[in-house]
Each structure stands twice: as C-alpha cells, then as structure tokens.
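=== How it folds ===
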Amino acid sequence: MHHVAFVVYPGFELLDPSGPASVFTGANRALGQNGRSAFYRVTLLSAAGGAVESSSGVAVETRSITDVRPGDLQTVLVVGAEREHLLPAVADPVLRAALPPLVRQAERFGSVCTGGFVLAALGLFDGHRVATHWDACRRFADAFSKVAVDSDALYVVDGRLWTSAGVTTGIDMALAMIAHDLDATIAGEVAKRLILYARRPGYQSQFSPVLKAQVKGDSPFADLIGWIQANLDAPLDVPSLAARAGMTERTFHRRFVAATGETPARFVETARLDAARMLLSRGLSLKAVAAQVGLFPPARLTEAFERRFGVAPRLFRAMHAVL
C-alpha cells in the first residue's frame, strides 16, 4: 500500500490533514466499488505521539515520528498552523531530526498551507518552487531566499515536492495525487462523493476576482462587483458600468482601479474567464459557456482563454472536467 503520513503538532489546523485524508480514504472506497484493492494507508505523526490538540480544540491520536523508519512512508506531508503554533514546530528538535531522513527516502513529500515553513527551515525546499497560504507568502520569501514562492497557485508540483496554498487547497492537491497515482476516473469519483464543485488545477488562482477585490477592504464597488458576477452575459463596458455606478466614465475608471487594483476591462475579463473555467470543469459545451459568461461567440472565448492561460478551452475541459 501507499503509506501517506501527515505530520501534526499542537495547535495545527485540523482541516489540513483531515480534508486530504478523507480524499485518500475516499479513493480506497472508490477502488473497492470498482473491484480493486485499497491503495492508501493514512497515518498521523507527531513528535511524541499520543493525543495532539488542534487549534479548534479537537484532538487526534498520533504515532511518534521516531517510531517510523525511513523508507516506510511513500508520502510525507507537514500540515500548517497559525504563527504562534507554527514557530514551536519549526524549532522542535525531534521533528528537525526525524523529518530529513523520512523525506529523503519518500516517493514524494511536501506541505499543506504553512507547514512548508517546517520543511523550508531544514533546507528541504532550497532550489524549489512552492505554494503556501497567501497571507504567509511575503514572510516565507523573506525567510527563505533560496525558495521560489508562487503566491498565486493553489498547489505546486516540483519533482518529488508537492505544496499547497492552504486549508481546502490540500484537498485539491490530494485529488491531483490520486489522479497521478491511480487515474483521473477515481479522482473524479472521489470529488463527486465529497460533493466538490470541481477538481481545480494547481495553477488556478487562490483568489477569485471578487475575493481579490474584497480583500482590499470595504470596496465602494461591492454592490457593483456582485452585480457583475451575477450578470456576466450583460454588456459590461465602462460606459454601462459607470452609468450603473452613477459616475462619469473618467471618475469611475479612476476609482475602480484604486479600489480593485485592476482596470474595469481587465476585471470583467478575469471574472468571465474565472467563471468559464468553472463551467468547463463541469463539462459544459463551449457554446453554452461562451453564452453564459458573455464571451460569445465561442471563438471570442477561445481567443481570450488561450491568451490568458495558454491552453485551448476544449483541452482545458478535457483535462479538468469532473467525471
């Protein structure tokens, strides 16, 4: 069996191991329903073993990492936490001594969310590209100059190293691991079983354009942005949006850029393409997607999609549709 170990410590984020663990056990269930043997075995490890309490107060039972021999694990993933719980884990002498030999002999290793700090502090990320939670990207880059941080990706695969941006993106990464280890059909069945909207590719942004705008604070265009998202098939040029906002075109353009960091045209196209990727992942036809997101005819959608993502929408749909 493929032995997957999640390394936890006091104050860890519970969803970081529990979400991906459910994905791996879901793969075993799907395999059984197809007359195949279980493939994954999941273990939780900690420095001392025993019960370890998460940040939510829920405790999990673990094995001591010192009881595991190098070569026993095929996948080693360190989970994340908030800063006050993460720093003691980075400095833990037991983890610092045990992780390098386990990682060196594993088929793959990596982290969920900020768990990458633990491995990067050991030099295990040097020369690699990684993902981490958006709120920790700057801190990560400043602390580890030999590591390239992809601040936008949901997860990154760099050789044996797999890293996810955090929390729910660990689920996306686990689904990608299943597709790699087994096949896309099993990964799709697991996604359906867990009622996931779609299996998101790693290069998809951590943020939708709406969330990006919301992160900037109390946007004066919050209502307009919500309307744009709900009316992607409507005319969304600057004159139309400015009129809806009750401003002159020049004032609207200036204030919109200040509030969102993007021009209205760029914002609208990003929102439309973000929606298009979601719809394509559900297997909808190009004609239907183009009509729903306001990029009709399909040739217009294809041009914008290829320009932004470097892949044709038909190929994207074939690669990422939930089966």
Summary: The CA atoms of residues 47 and 64 lie 5 Å apart. Strands lie at 2-7, 40-46, 50-53, 59-64, 75-78, 108-112, 129-130, 148-149, 155-158, 161-164.
